[in-house]
Amino acid sequence: MTHIAVVLYDGVAALEVAGACEVLGRMPGCHLSTVGGTLAEVAAGGGSLRLVPTHDFKTAPRPAVVVVPGCVDTLPGALADEALLAWLREACGGARWVVGVSEGAVLLAAAGVLEGRRATTHWSAREALARYGVAAVDEPTVTDGPVVTAAGASGAVEAALLVVAEVGGEELARRIQLLIEYDPDLAPPEATHRGADRQTLDGTPRGAQGAPGEEAPPLHIALLVYEGITAMDILGPYDVLWRLPGARVEFVAREAGVLRSDTGALQLVASRPFREVPRPDVIVVPAANFTVAEVVRHEPTLAWLRSAHGSTRYTTSVCGGSLILAEAGVLQGLRATSHWLVLGLLRDRGAEPVMARYVAQGRVLTAAGVSAGVDMALQLAGVLGGAEVSARIRLALQYEPAPPSDAGAIRSAPAERVRRTAGMLLVNRDLPRALRVTPVGAALAFSWRLLRHRLSAGRAWIPGRPTG
Questions:
Q1: What is the mean pLDDT of residues 353-374?
Q2: In whole angstroms, what is the distance from residue 193 CA to residue 170 CA?
Q3: Could you tell me the pTM of the whole model?
Q4: Angle at 56 between CA 51 and CA 60, to 5 degrees
Q5: Distance separating the N- and C-terminal Cα atoms of the chain
Q6: In Å, how far are 70, 106, 291 from 6, measured between CA atoms?
Q7: What structural domains does the chain harbor?
């Protein structure tokens, strides 16, 4: 068993945690845990998210892989945390692989792990990294021996895929990239740290956007969570949307409390039951590998979605979350997308399935698999806050994707890879029965039809980009 530890500390960047967990948690024979100084709740980023570590520094298994995500405005405090730095020295000393994302690379440098190495970090932390004598370079990812460092939110996914390729082989890394549909929209030049001018960089905080003292209309965003959710489905949109001026983001569930992700390693706190949030401005609905079948049968959840959707400005979903919206009747007669594997199931619930990164139909937005939620959320941020705010959020995240391959797109996936990846996902054999459609082969059969169409008809059925 290969133990993987993802470090949590106050202010840790949610998308960087989720991206690493989403990739590394899919490796066979691996045990993924989140490790903090104590088992108390950890505030993630500058928003409302609270994460609960699965282990503390004393009880964590000796890791073969250590991942240190970046943070939002809390680096000085983390650098002063001697217990954190001491644990990093010890854990990284015996690890096969060490990953530092954004400011996480600065923490590794402070712990002495990067001595004599080249490394990268978030554009705003490069000077801090250089102060530790590290050769700080401006690259998306840097591999120096057993240490991988990455710059920004997209770098967390890319660094994790590099580690998977080394530990489990290149083909496994490509399957996981396809599983999470890491085929992201590329950043426009003006929304990258290299393309932005100095004034824009200086005026872009890591956290919430908007000028100091600026009044913004309140924006109430409800993120639906439940046991077994796919973490990146919800934490990707969260890490974008909490930065909007005036945003108040809440994690809502059947009941308030701690909920686990489908990998078991990420434990997040739902702050309120959804019955107490009847009229949010925005709803985001994620998917799950194991428990979505239960949610599509849970009438109180569906009833809340139907009722709340009546007054939202936007109702959105990520990955198989569109199946929940469809079961609630929200997608009736609308074009919608989902993860490529279950896309065909939307048709049986009255929606028109479309293969696209995300689909906008009036005030309903649906995103494709897992990582597509970030692209959808950036699009929504542009609608709600304006193009400049969306660009600054992307810049603050340093969401500048540079995928290691084109394996995240079904359009370029070999048939055998599609089949093997589907086998990683079709673990919940109750899903089609729960939706009262054809047996378990329905979703996979639909994907095979798309694949055969692609092979026989060239560009026909190739997944598109944003569809209005």
A1: 96
A2: 30
A3: 0.91
A4: 115
A5: 46
A6: 11, 16, 24
A7: 2-179 (3.40.50.880), 198-397 (3.40.50.880)
Q: What is the helix (H) or strand (E) element at residue 219, kind and residue range?
A: strand 219-224
Nearest to 148 by CA among 108, 93, 91: 108
Please check whether residue 308 is in contact with residue 329, taking contact to mean a CB–CB distance below 8 angstroms.
no
Check if the beta carbon of residue 336 is closer than 8 Å to that of residue 364.
yes
Which of 21, 30, 71, 319 is the catalytic position? Answer: 319
DSSP 61: P
Q: What is the DSSP letter of 191?
A: G
d(CA 94, CA 88): 10
Residue 71 is a catalytic residue? no
pLDDT tens track for 239-272 = 999 999 999 999 999 999 999 998 888 999 999 9
- φ/ψ region of 11 (left if φ > 0, alpha if ψ in -120 to 50, else beta) reads left
* Percent of the chain residues past pLDDT 90, beyond the cut: 76
The owner of tokens 């993924």 is 32
> What gap in Å lies between CA 129 and CA 135, rounded to an integer?
8
Helix ranges, 310-414 (H) = 321-327, 372-385, 387-397
Please report, as a single letter, which amino acid is at residue 452.
R
Q: Which residues pair with 364 in a beta bridge?
A: 315, 361
Report DSSP letters for 152-188, one per residue: SHHHHHHHHHHHHHHHH-HHHHHHHHHHTT--PPPPP
